[in-house]
Amino acid sequence: MVPVDNTFGELGLSIIGVGVQYPRFNLAPDDLETLSKRFYASTPSMNKVLSINRFTGIENRSSIGTIDHPLVNQETAPSVSQLHEVFVEDGVPLAITAAQKAIEESRIRLSDITHVVSTTCTNNANPGFDNLVVAGLGIKQQVEKVLLQGVGCSGGLAVLRTASNLALGRTAQRKPARILCVALELCTPLVRSEFDSINELQEVRIGPALFSDCASAVILSNDIGGYVEPIYDVLGWDHRVIPGTAEHLRFNSDPLGWKVVLTPDVPKIACTAVPEAFSDILASVPSIPRSLQKADDFDWALHPGGATILTGTEKEMNITPYHLRASYDTYMKHGNSSSATIFSVLNRLRAKDMDAVAPSGGPREFVMACAFGPGVSVEMCALRRNQNSQRVADCLTPPLDDHNLD
Questions:
Q1: HSE on the CB side for 141, CA within 13 Å?
Q2: Which of 6, 188, 332, 405 is deepest in the core (most CB within 10 A)?
Q3: Which of 153, 181, 187, 214 is catalytic?
Q4: pTM for the full model?
């Protein structure tokens, strides 16, 4: 058997544009309680969920509608076909806008795009939503498309990993790669389906208190076809599935959409997997200086799956909230938008006001991005930030208007 070399060389891969688009509505913790009381009786399980909802640490969850949106005020929970209609009408425009922002920042032309790699876990139409995004952007040439399913909250980094491997293939062919990576999630329309399960099964299901809506995008480039100033250089990655944990984190298909399975063991399972993944990345990425061997030598872009995942990772890695400042900020202001969240965290991390609350020693040049998904899977990616960039992170939330609201 030929030995496998897991060492990353100089990849020549860079993120050259980032775009994030949240919808214009926010759901406060009180809103979930109001919606619950409209349609469901007070039961021990429902009361427990509402109690947890008050202490998630989330100030607002970004949403495509208010609690008065017709979709969540029907007599019954919306069907998959209704959810699909809303995904196309209200979600795809968010993805197009996020992609436009990333493309604009990258300063490439639409005709330069060679691939589109996308993900969602809140829609499963065929053809996928990526076709609609390509059409909405006005991309005329044939591009290679990949739509990832089954990766849940780790989807953003899974997309980046997939795009990176595609880009390396183009490099081997001595061809340029300009890859549009897109993540789109509409989680809040699933609230009535989740409430139904809480009410009928008397289960404590915390998804309605955590999840939100978002679209995000990045442009990944190889080093062929002209220099573009990087935002982040991609140095290497690690993907692993933790054996025996598949039943702890799931997103199961259902006639009324998808049902979140999130056991109380998930934070411990996820957080205790981080040290080994981090150690393996350090060993496989020679471009990380040997002087940087501790977790607090890095800034961390951690997917904010919940408050206990953030605090648990702090404890496991002996880092501070300041290392996770962009993750906390995104979590508190927008909630957990599944796969779309990690690009939002990376976008937030480069904002100048985030530098003001960096840990002792200031913002780190090297960044570890990490997310957890069904499996339980762990995605980790080592990045180098361009600290000399003068580009400003984009505005995340559009101004209020009447488009696609009612």
A1: 10
A2: 188
A3: 153
A4: 0.94
